[in-house]
Design goal:
It is built from six helices and twelve strands. The chain has about 220 residues and is of the alpha/beta class. The protein has one domain: Purple Acid Phosphatase, chain A, domain 2.
Length: about 220
Amino acid sequence: MQRIFFISDTHFGHSNILKFSNRPFLSVEEHDERLIDNINDHVGKTDILFHLGDFCWGDTAKKQTDFTREILSKINCKYINLIIGNHDPRTNSGQPRDDFAKLFTTCSPYMVTRIPNTPNPADIGHTRRKKVVLSHYALRSWEGMHGGAYHLYGHSHATLPENGTLSFDVGVDATAARSDFRQEDYRPISSCEVVEKLINKEIKTLDGHGIIIKKDNKDEMESRP
């Protein structure tokens, strides 16, 4: 059965990220090798992986594209969708460069998908699907928010406090922060983990359509005053 995973801010080849984000690796080479292993340990060849930006580092767009190709050749998963971040090669209009984008299954600045709405892997093929909005940056309001859609983002490296919305940071630093900052904690998370984290979260937040109240896994709309 095809599973769905999310990850962000891997920063392959970026030696300064070890210092900036206090990642527990002795060298960028060790860092890159372990993150690749962590992806391969969780994500199968035919699974789907959404990467929410800042894939790798490079002095020029060409070097970055070539290095991306090298990293991807070591990752088993063949269905990798990239939502570009501020460190990924882009055109002046903010779109991904063609030579870079074609390395991925899809590549865009923003994406909406659906995941099985269950925390139980055994139920993946037998449940309704939940809308999920993906972007590199955290959004305050997003498509389907008033109907209970989830929002996943990266960029913040575990520094952005969570709020009363159905959203959270899926970057590797945030995932490690929810564990013990071990090398193996810098990993992708599954759709089941996303649902497990958000399905019973009590929220009360305002967007353009009203106040969303979520209790006991039910979405209800309350009119704006």
